[in-house]
Specification:
Layout: H1 19-23, H2 77-80, E1 108-113, E2 119-122, H3 123-130, E3 133-140, E4 145-155, H4 156-163, E5 171-176, E6 196-200, H5 201-204, E7 210-215, E8 218-219, E9 229-231, E10 244-250, H6 257-261, E11 285-288, E12 294-296, H7 304-307
Parallel strand pairs: 1-10, 4-11
Antiparallel strand pairs: 1-2, 3-4, 4-7, 5-6, 5-10, 7-8, 7-9, 11-12
C-alpha cells in the first residue's frame, strides 16, 4: 500500500483554486460541425490568422495527480496567460497576442542522436499513448517572479523510454521551432536561434520532469509553449523550453541558448537557490504574480526532497544553482 508522507512545503489540494473556477474558461470556443476547435489563448483572432483544430481536445481535463501539492493557491489564468517570456515572439512579457500566429497542427517531434532507432513522432499520437495527468507545479523565473499553474502532461521519463537511448547517452538536448515568418523575435540575428536547452539523463528521468501539453484543464495556450513544452519546477523557468520540435540524446554536453548568449549570467544547472544571486539582482526573494507580494525563495523551489540527490558532489561547479 502506498503511503504519502506530507513534506514541509505541502498544503492540501483544497488550498488550490477550485477546479471549477478555471474549467469554466474552457468554453471560449464550442463544438463546431467539423469537430472541436479549441481556442489557443484568451486573445481574439486577428484577420488572416490560421487557427488549429486540436485532435487531442478530448483528453482534457485529465485526472489530477495528488502527489504534487502546492504551498500556495493556483495563479489565475488571466494573469499567467498575459505575462509570458517567449523570446521567439518578443523580449517583453505581453506576447500572448503575437504568439497566436504559431500554427501548432500538424506538429511532430524528431527523436535522434544516441538512440536505438531515430524516429519522428506525431504529438497527438504521443499524447494518447503517454496518458495525461494534471499536476499542480510552482514556477520560479530567474527574474525573481513566481506563479503556480495546473499543468497537464506526462513525465519526461516516458519519452526517454520511447526513445531507447544508448548507454553512451549522457544528456538530453531540446530544440524549439524555427519560423521567423511568424516569430518576429527570430529575425533578431544577435540571438543564437533556434532556442535550445539541455538536461542530464538523470534529470530527464527524475519524476518531477514533466512534458506539458495543457494547462487549466484544457490544451495549452500558444503563449505557454504549445503544443508541447518542458517544465522543470526545481529549476529557473528558462530551462523549461517551449514548443519542442526535436529531442536529441548526446554524449557531450552542448551549450544551451542562454549559455551561448550570456554565459556569465545563465549557467547550465540553473537550479533555484536563494543563496546564489544573479549577477544583477538578488535571488533571496521572489514576487508572486497573483498578489505582488515578495516571499522568501526556497532551495530547489521547494522540491529538494525530490531532486537534491541529483546534485551531490557538484556544489563547486560554476553557477551550480
Amino acid at each position: 500500500m502506498f503511503v504519502h508522507l506530507k513534506r514541509g512545503w505541502e498544503l492540501p489540494a483544497s488550498a488550490a483554486t477550485p477546479e471549477s473556477a478555471y474549467l469554466d474558461r474552457r468554453t471560449l470556443v464550442r463544438t463546431l460541425a467539423a469537430g472541436p476547435l479549441l481556442a489557443a489563448g484568451l486573445a481574439l483572432p486577428r484577420p488572416g490568422r490560421t487557427e488549429d483544430a486540436d485532435p487531442s481536445a478530448g483528453l482534457y481535463p485529465a485526472a489530477r495527480n495528488e502527489r504534487y501539492a502546492l504551498d500556495r493557491p493556483v495563479t489565475d489564468e488571466p494573469i499567467t496567460s498575459r505575462y509570458n517570456n517567449f523570446y521567439e515572439f518578443g523580449s517583453h512579457k505581453e506576447i500572448h497576442e503575437r504568439a497566436q500566429d504559431l500554427v501548432i497542427r500538424p506538429w511532430t517531434i524528431a527523436i535522434d542522436g544516441l538512440v536505438e532507432a531515430p524516429t519522428t513522432i506525431d504529438v497527438d499520437t504521443l499524447f494518447r499513448e503517454a496518458g495525461l495527468e494534471e499536476r499542480l507545479y510552482r514556477h520560479r523565473c530567474v527574474e525573481a517572479w513566481s506563479m503556480a499553474i495546473p499543468w497537464t502532461g506526462f513525465p519526461l521519463a516516458k519519452l526517454v523510454t520511447v526513445a531507447k537511448p544508448l548507454g553512451s547517452a549522457k544528456y538530453v538536448a531540446f530544440e524549439t521551432f524555427m519560423d521567423a515568418d511568424v516569430a518576429p523575435g527570430q529575425r533578431q540575428v544577435w540571438y543564437p536561434w533556434p532556442y535550445t536547452e539541455v538536461v542530464t539523463i538523470a534529470e530527464a528521468t527524475n519524476e518531477l520532469a514533466f512534458l506539458v501539453t495543457g494547462a487549466y484543464g484544457k490544451p495549452m495556450a500558444k503563449q505557454f509553449g504549445a503544443p508541447i513544452r518542458l517544465h522543470l519546477p526545481w529549476k529557473y523557468g528558462f530551462k523549461s523550453i517551449k514548443s519542442i520540435v526535436r529531442v536529441s540524446f548526446v554524449e557531450e554536453r552542448p551549450k544551451t541558448f542562454w549559455e551561448t548568449l550570456v554565459p556569465e549570467e545563465y549557467g547550465f544547472w540553473a537550479n533555484v537557490n536563494p543563496a546564489v544571486d544573479h549577477p544583477r539582482w538578488s535571488q533571496a526573494t521572489e514576487r508572486e504574480l497573483a498578489t505582488g507580494e515578495r516571499v522568501p525563495t526556497l532551495i530547489f523551489n521547494g522540491y529538494g526532497d525530490f531532486v537534491a540527490p541529483l546534485y551531490a558532489g557538484l556544489e563547486n561547479e560554476p553557477l551550480y544553482m
